[in-house]
Amino acid sequence: MFEIRLNDFTREKGKLTRLQRKYPKAFSAGMIKWGRRLQGYIKLSLNAHKHTGRLLKSVRWEQRPRGKIGVLKMLQRGIALDRMNPHWVSLKRGRRITQWAKDHGIRARSIFVKPHPYIDRIMNKHIIKLPKFIALELKKVAR
Q1: How far apart are CA 135 and CA 31, in angstroms?
Q2: I need a labelling partner for 30 at 20 to 30 A (CA). Which of 3, 74, 133, 141 fits?
Q3: CA–CA distance, 55 with 77 (Å, rounded to integer)
Q4: Concatenated DSSP letters for 84-112?
Q5: How far apart are CA 67 and CA 25, in angstroms?
């Protein structure tokens, strides 16, 4: 036989409503922490490929304080670097790639360029860690 005491139930109900109010914020906090970590790994990858300056500074994680959707933003050039098709590029005067080729001793009329798939590689590696970050924040709230 079960016995339910109403005074205990009201206290538990109060705890549940407090948790219910705190959970969306904790969920969002976990996503923000994960997103900032992802942003750091993307920047590390760009540094490893010697991409600095505007592209490196443009990488950022944006999310509203209680939002459930976060966005990793960067310059369009960074996304093109990740997703372009392999192709030939003519080395014409005035292009930065022409100066780069000259500095590296390349004396051809064109060079073959390939993508650097750093975004998907890092996302696939770190997407599995998102539930851990969210669970950690939820545990903090439940204490």
Answers
A1: 10
A2: 74
A3: 7
A4: PPPEEEE--TT-HHHHHHHHTT---SEEE
A5: 8
Q: What does the pLDDT look like over 21-76, one tens digit per residue?
A: 778 888 888 889 999 999 999 999 888 877 778 888 999 998 887 778 888 899 99
Per-residue tokens: 93: 């005067």
Q: pTM for the whole thing? A: 0.72
Q: Which residues contact 135 (CB under 8 A, 6 or more apart)?
A: 30
In which residue are the tokens 């459930």 written?
A: 68
Q: Token pair of 120, please?
A: 């998907």
Whether residue 38 contacts residue 123, with contact meaning beta carbons closer than 8 Å, is answered with: yes
